[in-house]
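Curious: explain these tokens?
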Amino acid sequence: MDSLTQIVLGAAVGEAVLGKKVGNKAILWGAIAGTIPDLDVLTKLFVDNVTANEVHRGFSHSILFSIIAAPIFGWLIAKIYKHKEANWKDWTKLMFLGLFTHPILDAFTTWGTQLFWPFRYKVSFKNIFVVDPLYTLPFLIFLILAMFYKRTDPRREKFNKLGLFISSAYMVITLGIKWYTYTVFQSNLEKQRIGYKEIQTKPTPLNSILWSANIETQNSFLIGYYSLLDENDKISFKEFPKNHHLLGEMKNDPLIPRLIKLSEGWYTIEKLSNDKLLFNDLRFGQLGIDEKNNRFVFSYELFYNKNGVLTAVESERKMNEASPLLKKLFARVLGNKEQPSSL
């Protein structure tokens, strides 16, 4: 999830674990614990894009990391607050739950997490977008309300638990919505007599009403959208040829299997006008929902550098395009299937 959500979740967990004993200190250190796993993004300062994306949500998001790091951080915090209300075991418990709930939450997103690192398998339920206000706001609102009361006031615990309950209930609801929308996509494929190998569904940005599906066929991938507010269940699918053959001799380079593993096999290849190739990772969807839109959130330009080494550079995402894209997104959320094709 996004940083704000993880901070608020960690703060709420910290309050639930140790709020009665140490008050707002529990919120502070819970928030810090919720931030720590995502410090692996700093690897981008030292390694290439592909390696950084391989490392992200790896060791720091694992059960093993939480078990190792929690007592160390717990000991350090206990040293800071010598002879105070909480001891090393209390702080260790807070840090473990703050660290561990971070990857648990990430496991419900599209990216997923290597919860069982060093095993490469990623846990990814794909039922909530990495930024979803309906999940984050209850945590934030009720946590702020809780902070207005003394640590021994029962209303403080009540507000914090209410935020945890509402957000958790919303998470469960999105699992139900995912199941329902999956059946709608599956039914459309059957009605249109489209043969397929696999379907992956996920919510679109900032909501759980509009869902997209990636469908793998023999030679291509299909992408379709369905909103719970659509007047009918009919879905139009757009086709993207795999074009894996365009890799040619590149497929023998060690970099290509790494990219394929990173994309979990959900990728297409495009030939650009400058003779470079574009490796599109389909798992995170498109940059926009236009009928003519061919861009994806994660793409890598493939080319040989001056030393003859195959290189992959992550394509830049232009922030000035975000506003018009969001307008179209929310129009589609409301069931408007007739989207204009130009930005």
Summary: The chain has nine helices and eight strands. The first strand starts at residue 198 and ends at 203. Residues 248 and 274 are 17 Å apart (CA to CA).
